[in-house]
Each structure stands twice: as structure tokens, then as C-alpha cells.
Amino acid sequence: MGVAATLPVTKPTPATATTPGGEAVPDALSALVELLQADLEATNRAIVARMDSPVALIPQLAAHIVAAGGKRLRPLLTLAAARLCGYDAPDARHVKLAACVEFIHTATLLHDDVVDESLLRRGLASANAVFGNKASVLVGDFLFARAFQLMVEDGSLRVLDILCRASATIAEGEVLQLVIQNDLDAGEAKYLEVIRGKTAALFQAACHVGAVVAARPEAEERGLAEYGLNLGIAFQLVDDALDYAADQETLGKTVGDDFREGKITLPVLRAWAAGDPAERAFWQRTVGELEQTDADLGEAMRLMERHGAIAATLERAREFAAEAKRALLVFPASPMRARLMDVADYTVSRAS
Fold first, then answer.
1. How many angstroms separate the first and last alpha carbons of the chain?
2. Whether this model's pTM surpasses 0.85
3. Which structural domain range is residue 130 located in?
4. Which of the listed residues 11, 37, 90, 287 has the most CB atoms within 10 Å of its CB?
5. What letters, b where the CB count within 10 A reaches 16 and e where it falls short, cover 27-63?
């Protein structure tokens, strides 16, 4: 089957989350994986099979990014949502749809790294750095096509509608991010619109289709969709904070990439809004006009610390994580519900 056949099942690196009440949530993703191990292994086999191609570069490049250490969080959410809803059919539709979700995610990563000219992905050389921009874009297109094949094979127009809408929304979010790039007056509402599109839409769809395959009532579908949406927003808020508050090994990409690219994120918006005229002139020069020196990233981080911009961003992330947990209360208590709630806390704890 080629290079892709060696793709391993990802096991999250042990970590400890802390709830807003201060209670420890040990290794939330590993606990979720433990509940879903058989499903995740089946999903991995589906990913390997669908990455294969007689064009050798396709499985080589696809395997490079899929096996680069990602947590498989989005396909895990599809599997968990289906199991939370009691899905246990022998046709294992949730497995193919989890693979579909991973392909959509991976395709967007390939395209994003080209757009952002990123050299690192999860701490390793990005696919475009290794194989070039043209190959990365084209293999991203291939993975999108594979995702749509899986949707069609599932045979549900509702599933097709949810995942197609999510794919379009992701693209809209990425384009909107380009539109507001360098625009310090974009505002928090526009920023949240960007991350709802580029990140949270796929989290939402990944959870939603799990309820759909289980044929659950509308209230449960809505609860899982809201969980995914709020979890995705919290996840991206933390990522945006970490770009200014993490080391490179933790972040898995070069610290300060967002700053160097002039991306409008909540830490920047909070520091800009609180800044005095001299500070605003700094932000306008460095982010608005992209005129930067080697010392500017350090100054940006100092200003964020001065005005509590990172802390404010993480507080917003905690608010969205709490909303995600509340959305699950439509379901009775169970080990799966508990693990999904822990994942919401883990998402925010990555910055601690």
C-alpha cells in the first residue's frame, strides 16, 4: 500500500488539565482515546487506505503531515459523539466520517501552511518546506476529494450538507482572516467570526455528524453541535494566546508567527485597545504596516503582559469551554460525557 501504510495511531502526550474549580483532569485526551481505542484504530486504517494512490508523492506527502504528531482531536470528537449517542451499528459509519473529518482538517493544514509560508508544523518541517508549495496545494486538493468521496459513500444528505457547509465555512473564515490581516480596527466581533469559520466550524460539524448517524433527537444534535462550536472557539483562542506565550517546542511552530504575519488575534486587539498613543504607534508599525525589527516581538509580548492581553484571551477561552460543557448537559451522565467535558478543560489548560 506504500508509505502511508506505516501511519501510527496517535496517542496524546500525557498532560494534566485543571477545571475552573481547580480540580485536576489527568490526561484528558488519553482517557478519551482509551474509551475509543478500537474505533480510533479502525479510523486510522481507513485513513491509510484512502491516502493510498499510484502517484507515490501523494501518500508520501499526506503521511508526512497526518503522522506528524497531531492529536486526532477532530476525528476523536466524531467517534465520541456517536458513542455518546449510543451508536453501535455494524456498518461503522462513524469511522468513515471520522476519517473524512481528518482529511478535511489535513487538507486545510496543507493549504494554510502554503498561504502562511510556514516552515514548521507540530514542531517538524511543514509539508510545503519539504515537498514544495505546488505539491502541498495539490495533495490538499486530493485529500478534499477523498473526504467528499467518503461523504457520498455514507449516503446521508444531512451528513453531506453538514460537512459541505463546514468546508465552505472554513474557506470563508480563512479568506476573512486575509481580509482583516493588518487591520487593527477589525474588532473582537470580526475576529471571533474568523475563528468560528476557520477552526470552530469543523469542530462543530465533527460532533454534529456523530449525532446524525445515531439518529438522535434534535435537542441532542443541537447540544453536540454547540459543544463542538464552543470547544473550537476555545481551542483557537488558546492557540492564539500561545503564539505569544509559549516556547517553540510546546507550540509546535515558530513562536511569534502570527505577529510576523500581521494576523489580527485577540491578544493583539486587547493590547491595541488598551495602549497609549506611543504603544498604538508601535502596533500600527509592526502589525498594521509590517515594519518589524528583531526586537519587536519581545516588545509586543511585554505590552501584552502589561495590559493583561494574554490573561484576557485565556479568560475568554475558559468562558467558551464552560459553554461547551453546558451544552452536553442534555445528555445523562456517563463516562463518555465526562471525558468530553474533561477535553473542554484540557483545551484551555494547554496554556498553563
1. 42
2. yes
3. 24-344
4. 287
5. bbbbbbbebbeebbebbbebbbebbbbeeeebbbbbb
**Residue 293 and residue 308: Cα distance in Å, rounded?**
23
Q: Is residue 17 part of a domain?
A: no
Cell output for 213 = 448517524
Report the number of distinct structural domains present in the chain: 1
Query: Residue 305 is placed in which grid cell?
Result: 503582559
**Does 19 map to a domain?**
no
Extract the C-alpha cell encoding 38.
478500537
**What single DSSP character describes residue 87?**
-
CB contact at 8 A, 109 and 65: yes
Other Cβ atoms closer than 10 A to 256: 18
Summarised one tens digit per residue, pLDDT across range 102-133 is 999 999 988 887 777 676 665 666 777 677 78
Is residue 7 assigned to a domain?
A: no
Residue 199, C-alpha cell as written in the block: 477552526
Say which CATH number the domain at 231 has: 1.10.600.10
CB 345 within 8 Å of CB 17? yes
